[in-house]
Fold Endolytic murein transglycosylase.
Amino acid sequence: MYLNTPPRSTIRFTRRGKLVLVVTGAVVAGTAVAVPLLSPGGADRKPISLVIPEGWRASQVYEAIDKALALPAGSTAKSIGKARLKLPSDAAGNPEGYLFPATYHVDKDATPQTLLQQMVDTANDRFDVAPVAAGAQRSPMNLYQAITVASIVQAESASRTDMGKVARVVLNRLARGIPLQMDSTLNYGLRRHAARTSLEDTRIDNPYNSYQRVGLPPTPIDSPGADAMRATLNPTPGDWLYFVTVKPGDTRFTTDYEEHQRNVAEFNALQQKNKKAQRSPSATASPSGASQSPSGVAQSRL
């Protein structure tokens, strides 16, 4: 399997989480595991919680920590070298993929380093649990590679129910030495959150351009959640090589390129229809997921 070479892209439409600072006891929406931590202020200040959603990039986490601690922008990113994070050697000091999505309680003594350490320690604890460890042992990938795949699955899946199939598509393409051709990796390399990828974009020379490079990207592209990790280690059986979310709730997986192209054509037709509706004076709202682009595997024939 082509697992170590620089890969191509895949950040197709990562849903951007929203920073949430809530007083302890408030209801927090989202997938988060409560992890003890209080807020900057004084002894009488109420504890607050910092929610890190699944699928956030490290850059988003850094920004959230800066805001939570009322620090100048860029402070957390500059503190990485001092944080003494327990990362695998494959990570080369980059915590991407290891800032585990959870709810962190921020106390008055919290610093960027302590928050980052807790996030990485939480990731290591979660990844060391028996089901994950057993799955990693059965897989031809090492744990860091599995986390990288899980980050792609997290970014590319329209829903949790799709994750097992998306993971299977990624693994099938890796096994065949086929470029992943996913927008999410390319967008990560370009430091953007674009909904659509142009033909010109796919030709950009970038280590995360999975249209041009075979294998996995150099690093994870976000912080995957437990569901994405489970899907990666226990993918749905199948021989699919392509998928596209034609509309919300309708993600189509196939092994046949011609069928996939028909699905992509249907997706594009719906996009055009939605654009016309949005331009119409009578349009009241854009449809949910209208900006979602098809997976990059739509772009080229095998």
User: Anything to note?
Assistant: Confidence is low (pLDDT under 50) at residues 1-34, 36-40, 282-293, 298-302.
